[in-house]
Write a structure and sequence with these properties.
Layout lengths: L2 E3 L2 H9 L6 E5 L14 E5 L25 E2 L1 H7 L3 E4 L10 H9 L6 E4 L5 H15 L2 H27 L6 E5 L12 H7 L3 E2 L13 H7 L3 E4 L6 H9 L11 H4 L3 E4 L1 H4 L7 H12 L1 H4 L8 E3 L2
Parallel strand pairs: 1-2, 1-5, 2-3, 5-6, 7-8, 7-9, 9-10
Antiparallel strand pairs: 3-4, 10-11
Length: 307
Amino acid sequence: MRIVSLLPAATEILIALGLGPDVVGVTELCETPGFSPAEWMTVVARRPAPAAETHEAPTAPLGEPGGAPLLVVDGEALAKAEPDLVIVSDLRQVCATGSREARAMVAGLGREVEVMAIDAVTVEGVINAVQGVGAMTETEDEAMDVVIGLRERVAAVEAIVVGRRDRGFVAPRVGALGWLHQLHGTGWAVPEQVRLAGGWELFGREGARPAPLTWDTVRDLDPEILVLMPQGHDIPATVAAWEALPRPEGWADLAAVRAGRVFAVDAAAYFTHQGLRIVDGIEVLSELVDPLAFDGMAPPASWVRLG
């Protein structure tokens, strides 16, 4: 089977199921730990270039409201890949392509091609996606092994969280910021990840789109932990974006700032793509929420403390 993945989360799943040799097309964002597009893979979707006449970057970073649009599919590259299966997302998010355009291109290939949408926005949704890909590619046994591993890791964190609460640990108030230049909270799976990690997320709702915020709201809710995770950004990009912004009025009075609990995390790896690393994201947050119980749980270099 020849597979084109137009979604980094799907690429992660395909690699985990041992289907790397079957993946003939990916996006430029499809990079997982220990994986980069191999010589037989074609990059069929890229971020659009800035306007040629200005040679300027967008006014906001990739993924922020008003920033660069979604990944754009190269119809010629897609045709040359000769896929039997194309995996897309119907959700408008930073890591996705325009699914309507992608489906139209697939329909115009002049051959029978299966199209599968993965729109996981919860932990259980990711697990279901693994099983769905397994069923579509006849790798059900491999998918079950991956699912069991994910469930065991989530259960291990939950057991510690429950034990800590039984002994009197109070879930701290966590504020997760999904955009910085045009301030937004988070949504999709992030509030669930915070809850599973033992915290109480203030700015988003599980499974819902991220909503705009004001610094007045941030000050009113006064999070005890503030986590910067702008969509599509790694830690250096997040730190650079944060350092370029003026500190809002009342910043020094926030509980998180006074306690030295303001963090930047690798959003591109653990919080943007809603793939297998959604569980790594829970482990990252658990270490930030309750470092006494979860010291060493987060993957190396997955977060930094901001001054």
